Every structure is written in C-alpha cells, then in structure tokens.
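DM from R.C. (forwarded with permission)

"hey, sorry to bug you on a friday — could you get me a structure for this? deadline for the figure draft is monday and I only need the backbone to look sensible"
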Amino acid sequence: MGFQSLRKVCCCLFIHTENNQLEDISMANQKTNHPKADDRTGTVDTIAQAEQLLQEATVMEFATLDKRGFPNIVALTPLRPQRSVKQVLFYTDRDTTTIHNIVESGKASIYCFNERHHCSVALQGYAGLVSRSEVQKSFMADLTAYQQSLHYANPVFLRFTTIFVKVRYQDNVTFQKLLDHE
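My reply, with the result:
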C-alpha cells in the first residue's frame, strides 16, 4: 500500500467513525468566503490554514505503516508549543506499535478535524524519535496534565516532519509541498 493510500485510509476511517461529522461535512458544501482566501486571486493560503487548524487541535490521528503494509492509526495529543505545519512533537511510550512501525519505516501521516469550521488538515511526512541530547527540559514542562498522568515506563518524544500538507475547508481542498523528501 502506497503512502498516498495511507492518507486516504486514515481520512476515511476517521470520517466513518464520526457519523455526526459526516452529516456536517455534507451540509457544508456551499461556497463561502474564507478569511484565509486572497480576494484578488481567489487562492487559499494553505499553510496559514494548516497552522490555524494545528494550533486548535487537541488530538490528532497519527498513522504509520505496519510490517504488512497496513495503516496503524492511533490518537495522540501533540505538545502545544512544539507544533507547526513543519513539525509536530508528540509524547508516547517507546514500547508501542507506533514506535516499532517508525523504526521499520519513518513514513507517517497526521490528520485532524475541526468540526466548528468543517475543515481538516492532513500532513504526510516522516516520523522519528527525538534523541536524548535533543530533549529539552521545556518539553517535559510543555506536557499537558493528561500527558503527565500517563506515567510511561519508557517515555519518548516523537517528531513528525511534514513533506505535504492538504487542507480541506468546506468545499475547498488545497495542497502544498514543503520538503523534497521522496
């Protein structure tokens, strides 16, 4: 299964598990003037929209490929100050399927949805562990109360680096390539 298919599976899985959101999406297919659109050209600022969605997201769907080539999707909470369209940091345990999958293949995808604005952002890129020398004391201070309560036996920070960005705002879909890594 290619990486392009992984994103599609991730998005479809999320939509099909949230029936009320599926209704909202279908009802929102009307032309609107989004504040991030350039009125002169009608183009949408994909990066600005993605940044806004990422900052508002409290949970993200994080997909990796298992050794059989199938997507493994988990819900992860990103570190709030350590996120942008270029990079997102997560806190998890070393002994998870997600980490084992990343060791085999760093290809990953992130997806999050904002029901209030009927929009979503999907990021494709690579994930890897943050080395001990890179971990800053501020990372631990940035953990939410929930993340701190997890008390992982082998805690690690996971860095996702974006290559492609896809933003859906109602009936507008835009793409942007960030890095040349393929």
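R.C.: lifesaver. The domain at 3-177 is CATH 2.30.110.10 (Pnp Oxidase; Chain A).
me: no worries. The chain is about 30% helix and 35% strand.
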